[in-house]
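Before the break, one more example. Copy the sequence into your notebook; we will annotate it together after we see the structure.
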Amino acid sequence: MIPSLQNGVSALKTFSEGLQVLSNNIANVNSLGYKSARANFTDNFYIHQNNPGPAVDGEPRNTTRNYGSGVSVGSLSSNFNQGVIENTGLDLDLAIQGEALPNAGGFFEVIDPDSGEIFYTRAGAFESTAEGIVVTRDQNRFQLTDIEGQPLLLGLQEGEDLLARRIDEDGVVSLIVH
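Here is what the structure looks like once it is written out:
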């Protein structure tokens, strides 16, 4: 194929991939905890061509030309910037304000109850099971602990009614029961 046509075809394919990433971002704009992605474009290899030219003043002359061979998506990067924190009025909707690294506290650590595998999420929409275990909407367990580091259940004793539940900025859980 003619190299210039190859470059055009490569650009069309690559920009089509970029549009797919963009459309995925738009489709998930309201998805809980979704982090947008960005396509990073890169040049393909260059073709170096030596063109011998006529001698000037008895010296041979070579001209080197570089021809691009197209473009491709080099990588996809996720946007881990802090999202907007909104008050939902739900007592188990939590938010983390921090860097987006597991060691920097920017994620909730949740555990798959079937496999025991650990996952990290920035989606803080949690629920409480009848047993008082705090879980994600996918039923992954978010392990709250008490002051001694023991698992904390938000369940009620028999005959108790939950009047209010609050988790403050420092992670202290308060239950008011009747």
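DSSP finds one helix and eleven strands in the chain. Residues 3-78 form one domain. Try to locate both features in your own notes.
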